[in-house]
TrEMBL record:
InterPro entries associated with the record: ArpA-like, CprB_TetR_C, Homeodomain-like_sf, HTH-type_TetR-like_transc_reg, HTH_TetR, Tet_transcr_reg_TetR-rel_C_sf
The keyword Cell membrane is annotated on this UniProt entry: no
Species in which this protein is naturally found: Rhodococcus wratislaviensis (Tsukamurella wratislaviensis)
HTH tetR-type domain mapped to chain residues: 8-68
GO molecular function, one term: transcription cis-regulatory region binding
Protein name: Transcriptional regulator, TetR family
Keyword terms, alphabetized: DNA-binding, Transcription, Transcription regulation
Length: 215
């Protein structure tokens, strides 16, 4: 048991150190020697857990995906309207990007590999599908216009968020990301909600999900 715990701790140390290097230098720029040095382990330890840099990068993308989907599922259990859950989802994605190097690294690697048609689409497809299901419920609940097409709205929302966080990274290193996501919803909600529901826009924009630290 002690040996298993030590191996798990080493694996986590490798992933954390690699994520920091991938975030800083990208997949192509990160060298295994730099990852080993940053993680404070030996090459032997790295190769015991991961066969190659690509294997390590794919694992980090998978971890980023797992973290994101876990929050999607948790937000789906909140006892609030579907439109509030969509807003919560975007703000939680922003919080993860700001606070979690694994999430940042996973996003950077995915975008970098996508330039060569090698990037996995699953993280974005799952975000879009989750948003689509919530948008469908929001239409049923009367919080979205009846003629809103949920698949198109979901693709737009995730695309808009991706653009907002990218510009925030370029201009302020994401220090203003929370405000920029709120701005996005401030512009978007009046155009997609029935006029009879506009009095709830301020409340919906304030919707946030707070992770349970005991989980």
């Amino acid at each position: 048991m002690v040996q298993q715990a030590r191996a798990a701790a080493t694996r986590q140390q490798i992933v954390r150190g690699a994520a920091e290097m991938f975030e800083k230098s990208g997949f192509e720029g990160a060298r295994l020697g730099n990852i080993v040095e940053n993680a404070g382990i030996t090459k032997g330890a790295l190769y015991f857990h991961f066969r190659s840099k690509e294997d390590l990068a794919r694992f980090i993308i998978g971890e980023q995906h797992r973290i994101s989907i876990a929050s999607v599922e948790a937000i789906g259990r909140e006892q609030v309207s579907a439109i509030e859950q969509i807003v919560m989802l975007c703000h939680e994605m922003a919080r993860q990007i700001v606070n979690d190097p694994i999430v940042r690294a996973g996003i950077r690697i995915t975008l970098e590999l996508s330039a060569d048609d090698q990037g996995p689409a699953d993280p974005y497809l799952d975000w879009i599908n989750s948003c689509e299901m919530l948008a469908t419920r929001a239409v049923e609940q009367g919080d979205l216009l009846a003629d809103i097409d949920p698949p198109r709205l979901a693709r737009f929302v995730i695309g808009a968020f991706t653009g907002v966080q990218t510009v925030s990274q370029v201009l302020t290193q994401r220090t203003d990301l929370e405000q920029r996501v709120d701005d996005m919803w401030g512009f978007l909600l009046p155009g997609i909600m029935p006029a009879s529901r506009h009095q709830g826009i301020a409340r919906i924009r304030r919707a946030r999900w707070v992770p349970d630290e005991t989980d």
